[in-house]
Specification:
This protein has 101 residues and is mainly β. It contains no helices and 10 strands.
């Protein structure tokens, strides 16, 4: 049995106010954990379905963890991330890729 891994994704705003996702495409395996972090309030949402144990989550600045479900099928899962800078919401659409078993 493979040991599960934790994958960290850092969300930040560059000097011009554009949302930067340090890993816009992340390859994961079933039962891995994904941890998003940011100094700013943020939200993560998968639609219409999630390969993780939750459809969405948020943090007021800090981190958010989701575990990849053991029954998630291989493939590419787009998700929505939004960061609030105190004046406006900035969004991006990164990708989680689940490797075939």
């Amino acid at each position: 049995m493979m040991k599960s891994k934790q994958h960290q994704i850092v969300l930040s705003l560059d000097p011009s106010g554009i949302l930067t996702v340090d890993r816009p495409s992340v390859r994961v395996s079933r039962r891995d954990t994904i941890r998003w972090t940011s100094d700013l309030p943020f939200a993560v949402e998968f639609t219409p379905s999630s390969p993780c144990d939750r459809l969405k989550g948020s943090s007021s600045g800090g981190s958010l963890k989701m575990k990849v479900r053991g029954d998630s099928g291989p493939g590419q899962y787009e998700y929505f991330v939004a960061v609030y800078d105190g004046h406006r919401v900035v969004t991006e659409d990164p990708v989680i890729i689940i490797e075939a078993v």
